[in-house]
Design a protein that fits this description.
The chain is an alpha/beta fold and about 375 residues long. It has 2 domains: about 120 residues, no CATH class; about 220 residues, Spore Coat Polysaccharide Biosynthesis Protein SpsA, Chain A. Helices cover about 50% and strands about 10% of the residues. It has 12 helices and 9 strands. The strands form 2 sheets. The chain has a 7-stranded mixed β-sheet with strand order 3-2-1-4-7-6-8, sandwiched between helices. The protein has a two-stranded antiparallel sheet with strand order 5-9. The longest helix has 27 residues. About 40% of the residues are buried.
Length: about 375
């Protein structure tokens, strides 16, 4: 039995090394300048779309950063999705200062999630190029809009951006930032391998024609999540997708402040994974399964005569992981996480095991996009 565990651990470690050296190294060694895509003269107009429900304070703080982007021709559409707080009053006040702000107020009951609200915003958009973010997000510079949408030319119809979380005290914040970066490593690296499978709605651009071509969110409108990853999984391919990871395009977001709210958020997001294309499910399943088997195998075999071999496997893999993270964390502007990587990488085994039932079970509590 131990002999079988050893060989499973060995194969899992080899598979992990393959992911890090063949896939994730592409991101680790990727370099992208601000002007990697040819400038379009004159710049094409852009519609920025934000859906908000009960986001009064976030709209007050963050919306001006979107409205003050340095770009000659753009509009910002905010869809107030049945808010019960002061969101609408705040939006009206902001509109008095910024004429480019367009407002839509939804009062009727809609399907779960924000797909109806987002669809309304896209329908109302006057321009072909769309840039999406959330009310609790803030662009770090005034060049976010121009660089994120510059790639939308020729055959490129989708721009995948990066949205880090704000740094706060506590281990929860450290773990959330790590999980967000690990997710970014996956979707950026897969896109560089011409296998794009998701994006994050906090920082995502695509063209309106593509949205209409795939009939919007029709195929998964009944699912609360997926306005970003399921649509990208459906519409993206190796020829029409670009990644944008210049620091001027980062959009910072506020992380959850309790483990309970984080669990709810991740449970809702993870329910979409079973609807990815089979190739993506296979690759992501192999990544998760080999990660878990590597750590479980090392743990099981440490007290046995296989200890020297599994320690060597562990050290080789961890050396590669730290090497790649050192480069990627610098690229994504969060190098302080590096000292936590050995602990967080091991803890992610528990993450995979803890959330695995979510892929099989969906409760009624997962039907809302915002509580």
């Amino acid at each position: 039995m131990l002999h079988l565990v050893f060989w499973l651990t060995f194969m899992a470690t080899l598979l992990q090394l393959a992911y890090w050296l063949l896939f994730f190294s592409r991101l680790a060694y990727y370099r992208q300048g601000k002007n990697i895509f040819p400038a379009i003269e004159p710049p094409l107009p852009v519609s920025v779309i934000i859906c908000a429900r009960n986001e009064a304070e976030n709209l007050r703080k963050n919306l001006p950063h979107v409205l003050e982007q340095e770009y000659p021709d753009f509009e910002v559409i905010v869809v107030d999705d049945n808010s019960s707080d002061k969101s609408w009053e705040i939006l009206l006040d902001i509109k008095n200062k910024y004429p480019i702000l367009q407002l839509i107020q939804l009062k009727e009951q809609t399907l779960p999630g924000k797909k109806v609200a987002l669809s309304r915003g896209i329908e109302a958009a006057r321009f072909e190029r769309l840039l999406l973010t959330d009310a609790d997000c803030r662009p770090v510079t005034k060049h976010w809009l121009s660089i994120m949408t510059q790639a939308l030319q020729g055959t490129t119809e989708i721009s995948l951006g990066y949205s880090p979380y704000n740094l706060h005290a506590g281990f929860l914040n450290i773990f959330i930032r790590f999980e967000s970066i690990y997710t970014a490593i996956q979707y950026f690296s897969f896109a560089l391998m011409k296998l794009p499978y998701m994006g994050v709605g906090r920082n995502l651009a695509y063209v309106k024609t593509l949205f209409r071509k795939h009939q919007g969110f029709t195929s998964h409108v009944h699912i609360a999540s997926g306005d970003d990853d399921l649509f990208i999984n459906q519409a993206a391919n190796g020829q029409n997708t670009a990644i944008i990871i210049h620091p001027d395009t980062f959009v910072v977001s506020t992380p959850k402040s309790s483990w309970r709210s984080y669990y709810y958020q991740k449970s809702r997001h993870l329910t979409t994974g079973s609807r990815y294309k089979f190739t993506h499910q296979l690759l992501l399943g192999g990544l998760a399964g080999s990660h878990v088997m590597h750590y479980l195998g090392v743990l099981i075999l440490l007290p046995t005569t296989y200890a020297p071999a599994v320690i060597l496997m562990f050290l080789v893999r961890m050396g590669v992981v730290l090497w790649m993270y050192a480069r990627i964390l610098k690229l994504l502007r969060d190098p302080s996480l590096l000292r936590w990587i050995p602990l967080l990488d091991a803890a992610f085994t528990c993450y995979y095991l803890f959330f695995s039932p979510v892929l099989l079970l969906t409760t009624g509590n997962l039907k809302k996009w915002k509580l």
